Amino acid sequence: MRRSLARFFLLALSIAPLGCGFASYEHRLEATQGRMRDEMILDRTLYGPSGGAFRENNIYLRVPKGLAETEFAPVTLTPGFFEVEASYIPQGSQGELAGGPLSLHVLARRTSQEPSEAQEQPDQPHVPRNDFRSDVMAVLAAVYGPGVNNAAVEPVNKTIWPRITPSGDAPPPTIPYERLTLTDLNQQLIHIYFYSAQSGNATYDVALIWEFPSGEPPTTGTNPVDLTLGTLAVGQRAQARFSGRPDSAGEGEAGAGAIAF
Q: Is the whole model's pTM more than 0.90, yes or no?
């Protein structure tokens, strides 16, 4: 009887690790399948990442299908004021494919920290600059009027896409933004999202200005605006995404406190 009990306990101890390993395998399998589903949704709703100045400055941005990239459209900007400046405008009826009529304008900066003596000195901006938000708001005041400075501000978190499956009961990681909301003289709704993060030896500041002529943002199940906001990445994360490497738990940029990758 004692020998039988001993064999039973030894067998139970040997099976226990297999159970843990199987649970871990199931979690990885579910995460992989979920990521593949999310990638299909993204590819169906968004274009691939913008190139040019975006890639040169390690800023990863995917915009809704139906929008075509142009020069920054609202006003003429002083050359060198921003590292990245672009507009995405609906092309005829194709704008409806993005979940409703909308436009997107993007302004961004990449500011390098002071390098060591052994490092090559980076190119310095040729125009005087204030802090990023002040300069963006000055541009937008010329577009929408001085009332933009009185726009309501609120912090918002957007789920990272493709969604990361955390272990346990932890919530999915998010990207922190500050959103300004206003209505312009044409009664179109304006949402301005500010994002800032530090990665490596650089600080990244991005402003995404969404215009909704209907007065309402998209409310579809796969909201293209939320998908664009959820796929934004800068610095090392942007480099990884440009290379096709997925985000993983534990990675992130300093200063982006709500992000856990």
A: no
